[in-house]
Each structure stands twice: as structure tokens, then as C-alpha cells.
Fold this protein.
Amino acid sequence: MFERFTDGARKVVKDAQEEARSRGDRAIGTEHLLFALTRDDGPAGEALRDSGLFRGAAGDAVAALPDPSGLDGEALRLLGIDLDAVREAAEDAFGPGALDAPSGSRRNRSPKGHIPFKPESKKALELSLRQALNLKHGYIGSGHILLGLLQDRRFRAARALSGAGMDLEALRADVIRRIPPKAA
Amino acid sequence: MSDGVRLAQEASSRDPAVGLRAVRALRELAERLEALQVSNAREQGWSWQEIAVCLGVSRQAVHKKHGAGRRILKKER
């Protein structure tokens, strides 16, 4: 699949890996691809930034999602427990991400070397290939990767975008309009 | 309203969905903190017996839950 990727699309994947690494995440999720796309020079980056979604806004949108690790900040807040404060105290004592992993949490604090894709982001990249084929484009660019992210509403990236009030259908139409039929 | 009062209200909420979710959230948070503290205690050279006494459980229970076998498996992953 990667052999059909344009340089821009390869850069998105590489940047997504860097996003995951710098955040101390152990695998590349759709949210990391989204972060990388906000800085893309191609159609995906243009479409996202035109709709107001810069890197910072994307970060806020993902941060607003329920914690994937299973800690229920909302329920804890109802109980009068400030999860952020607990997390901060734990991280002060034990380092970043101390509260994230259920156990053995001290390992892999900042992953080195290869960072694998989560199944969700693998699926999104496969969907980007399908999008390119459907559009009869002989290549996969950044625009197709964004289309892949938007394809399944259950993806973290898609949920973050709709949570931030973005119209996914409009964004989808906009990026399709911007994708050139041939790789630049 | 104090946090303690709210805690009492939520934990004893008449709506099971609210009350159970609150209990689950507390349990998950407690599990995380336990894992963190146990691994810290082990790194500081505490015995399983000492940890168990503090947690109010048996030595076997704490060892089974946080013991070496699990840890090695996790590290290899």
C-alpha cells in the first residue's frame, strides 16, 4: 500500500509517528494522523486550516474525548474528584503518563525507535487507499488520508472533529474538491 | 457543597446508571493508583508482605495481582 503514497502522504505518516513519540504514546492512532494533517502542505492541510482546525484546535478536540484508557473524568468530577489534579500529582511524583497504563506504568515513557500503528489507524489508511481507488486516483496523497479518517465515525479523529463542531460531510466534500486527480 | 457531601449523593444516587458509573470510575482510578504505588514500593525494596499489610490484603493476593510473572510478560510485550 505505501508504495502508492506521495511524498506528502509519507510525510504525514512520519509526522504522525513523531506526534505519537513526542506525546509519549506507544502507538500511532488516527488522532496522530489528524495532528500531522493539520500541518500538511497539500489538500488535507488546506481544507483543515480553512475550516479553522489548526494544530492547537485539533489537540483540544482530541483532549476533549473521553479518556481511552478508561479513566472516567466526568464521573469522577461528579464525585468531587478532580482527575486532572490526581493525574498531575501522580506525574509530579512518578513522571509523565504515570496514571495512564493500568500497571507497569513506568515502562516506555518515551518510546524510541519504531512506533506501531493502532488497528484503528491501519484501518484508516486502508480506507484512504479505497477512497483513492473510488475516485480513480492512481496515488494516495494527504487528502486521501483525511478522507480515510473521516470514513468511520467511530475513529478517534472523526469523533474529535465532530466533537469540535465540525461538519464532517462538508469537510469531506471540500477536501475531495481540492484533491488533484494526479499526483503533483 | 463540600466534595464529601457530593460523593455521598452520587455514590448513593437512586439512578443506578449514575451510581454504578461513579463506582466504576472510582474503582478504575483506585486500580491505577494501586499499580503505581505497588511498583514504587517494590522499586524501593519493600517486601510483598509489607505492601500487603498496608493494603489490607494477603501477601498472596498482592503478589498474584502485581507479581513478577505479570511484570515480565508485560515487559516482553
Q: What stands out?
A: Residues 14 and 20 of chain B are 10 Å apart (CA to CA). The two ends of chain B are 46 Å apart (CA to CA).
